[in-house]
Design brief:
Blueprint: H1 2-36, H2 38-62, H3 71-92, H4 105-127, H5 135-154, E1 162-163, E2 168-169, H6 171-193, H7 200-219, H8 229-255, H9 257-288, E3 293-296, E4 301-304, H10 306-312, H11 322-334, E5 338-344, E6 347-356, E7 361-368, H12 370-407, H13 413-444, E8 453-455, H14 457-475, E9 478-482, E10 489-491, H15 493-509, E11 516-523, E12 536-543, H16 575-585, E13 589-595, E14 599-607
Parallel strand pairs: 9-11
Antiparallel strand pairs: 1-2, 3-4, 3-7, 5-6, 6-7, 8-10, 11-12, 12-14, 13-14
Length: 613
């Protein structure tokens, strides 16, 4: 088999070499004819192009029912009309003496129209590559354009392209050639983008054809005489361009039809294989779905996947569970689809009941929405909390501002100062709330970058305690810090300050009056929080405040979570979630231990590993 393929490939290569030798010889003969008589050369060149144009039309027309794209159809129909214009151009050429009373401007104008048509046809064929084209409208539209253009050219309304008296091209003609080249160049790029849609040989032939037409059009911007050198070069490259259109379409579409046929069959086979795999996946999908999927009649379960059997405690052939029965009755009685939200145990499901009246059954699809409902509740709680937290400082600001405006002349400097301090405090409360929300948003979008540097945790904590001393004094909370002042690690000092501040603020907020908060650091920690067993430090924040209920501990680091037992204490439920995110960004971990009404201990492990910016 391999040897047969090699032999076939060798034959194809040898055949192509012979074809190019024959073509080159013919091209040389055509060139030599220009030395004898330029009009003979021009006639042969144009007739070659016209014959190929008709051939392209025949292939495009007859292959329309087999091809999935409109490319060859648009090219084929367009080249029929291009061939007609080229034929009239040949008959109108100087020396043919067929159209009496016309100058060399007539064939030049016809040439420009034909090339515009050819370039635009290529571009449209690529743009409408997979669009369904109405063949009747396509032929009629081309016919109308042809008639209009011929009338415009022969009546002298078309812009002048060549001035006979001074044997010079007009600016319109030269600019048009460059525009045509630009359209061909765009088609060239588009062809490359769609290269996978074509047979490789067809793709190369069309690319060579387009490039040859670009060179041809550039040559036609330089000639001064219709019998000149650049005119000859332009026609030579036009022959090369049309020859490769022949190679791409006539040879590949007619001489090698079996290749196209088997290519189509191969593509169809692959498409059928993909569709079969999809159908197989769809057949398995209900069985593999982690959500309940079942089919029932009025009284019994007809089929049920494993998830529905476990969730509803049913099996195929069993009676319909009571929790679904009245929904099924409604669907059958009123011939309507239904959607219902049903609680099963500690989970909530949305069930969709789809009636098939013709076959007498209902397909039921369940979706576990427990987490969605919990998220919605957390969001509602968060909005309520944030609204409450925002309302208090805003109310203070509004009241203080109105009071200052109304009684400014009656107030002493001390009262004004106290009002300003209160306003400043509430402005910072608002700022902190907004900062918390923005921080979580940046974490979610992975926009938080850490600026690594060597820091001393003792200094950071001392600065936090100094700034928070007024808040602690309000409840007479004291702090005991057991941290080596020389202890250091690599961290982002700003984020580390944020982490420590959250735990210290919580310790003050949830501690009773006259209580003590102990902050410790254990260097070279090797406990269970150090999962990778690396060099690091364990920080603990231990208070004897109100503590945390056992059932609330698993949710403590979740966003927006706030225990019902602390609803009277200001907070948004964002602080601990922010702290956890920042700790994990440092490669660390956090844990909480607590007993209700006895106190809470937060443990934070941070690695010491040196990081680089």
């Amino acid at each position: 088999m391999v040897e047969q393929k090699r032999e076939s490939s060798t034959i194809n290569i040898n055949t192509s070499i012979i074809e190019y030798i024959v073509f080159s010889s013919l091209l040389l003969l055509i060139y030599l004819s220009s030395l004898y008589n330029y009009l003979l050369f021009h006639t042969i060149a144009e007739l070659s192009a016209i014959i190929i144009s008709v051939g392209i039309f025949v292939v495009g027309w007859n292959s329309k029912q087999y091809l999935k794209t409109s490319f060859f159809l648009i090219i084929g129909v367009s080249f029929l009309f291009i061939g007609i214009i080229d034929l009239i151009h040949t008959m109108a050429y100087a020396g043919m003496n067929i159209f009496i009373g016309f100058t060399s401007n007539l064939p030049t104008s016809l040439w420009i129209v034909a090339r515009y048509w050819q370039a635009i046809s290529f571009l449209l064929a690529l743009i409408l590559f997979k669009k369904k084209i109405n063949l009747y409208y396509l032929v009629v539209l081309n016919s109308v354009f042809l008639i209009i253009l011929l009338v415009v050219i022969f009546t002298g309304m078309f812009p002048v392209c060549y001035i006979e008296e001074i044997q010079r091209l007009t600016p319109f003609k030269i600019i048009s050639e460059y525009i045509i080249d630009a359209i061909f160049f765009i088609s060239l790029i588009w062809m490359y983008m769609r290269r996978n849609e074509f047979n490789r040989r067809v793709f190369y032939f069309i690319i060579i054809s387009i490039i040859s037409m670009i060179i041809s059009e550039i040559s036609f911007t330089f000639y001064t005489s219709v019998f000149g050198f650049f005119n000859l070069i332009g026609h030579i490259f036009k022959i090369i361009a049309f020859y490769h259109i022949y190679k791409a379409i006539i040879k590949t579409g007619i001489k090698e039809p079996y290749d196209l046929l088997f290519r189509k069959l191969k593509l169809s086979e692959e498409e059928l294989k993909i569709k079969a795999e999809r159908l197989d996946d769809m057949a398995r999908f209900p069985l593999e779905d982690p959500n309940p999927v079942l089919r029932v009649n009025r009284t019994h379960i007809m089929s049920a996947n494993e998830a529905s059997q476990n969730i509803l405690n049913i099996e195929e052939g069993s009676l319909i569970p009571k929790i679904l029965q009245h929904h099924i009755d409604d669907c059958f009685d009123y011939s309507k689809n239904e959607e219902a939200e049903i609680n099963i145990g500690d989970k909530t499901y949305t069930f969709f009941f789809i009636v098939n009246e013709n076959r007498g059954y209902i397909s039921i699809f369940g979706l576990n929405i427990t987490e969605r409902i919990k998220a919605k509740q957390r969001l509602e709680r968060f909005v309520s909390t944030v609204s409450h937290e925002l309302r208090n400082p805003i109310s203070v600001l509004v009241t203080s501002t109105e009071f200052l405006n109304s009684h400014s002349s009656e107030l002493t400097e001390d009262i004004i100062q106290k009002l300003k301090e209160g306003m400043t405090k509430n402005i910072y409360l608002l700022k902190n709330l907004v900062d918390d929300i923005l921080m979580l948003s940046r974490v979610d979008e992975r926009k938080v970058t850490l600026e690594w540097e060597e820091v001393k945790p003792f200094d950071i904590i001392q600065e936090i305690l100094f700034l928070m001393e007024p808040i602690g004094k309000q409840k007479n909370v004291t702090f005991k810090v057991n941290i080596d002042p020389n202890l250091s690690l690599w961290s982002d000092s700003k984020r580390l300050d944020q982490i420590f501040r959250i735990f210290i603020d919580n310790a003050i907020k949830y501690s009773a009056r006259d209580s003590k908060v102990i902050i410790k650091a254990l260097d070279f920690y090797r406990g269970y929080l150090n999962k990778q067993n690396i060099d690091g430090v364990l920080f603990t924040f231990d208070d004897n405040g109100i503590g945390i209920a056992k059932e609330d501990i698993p949710h403590l680091f979740k966003r927006f979570f706030r225990s019902d037992k602390v609803s009277d204490i200001p907070g948004t439920g964002l602080g601990l979630s922010i702290a956890k995110e920042l700790i994990e960004l440092h490669g660390g971990s956090v844990e909480v231990q607590s007993q209700l009404m006895k106190g809470t201990k937060f443990s934070v492990f941070l690695p010491r590993i040196k990081r680089y910016k």
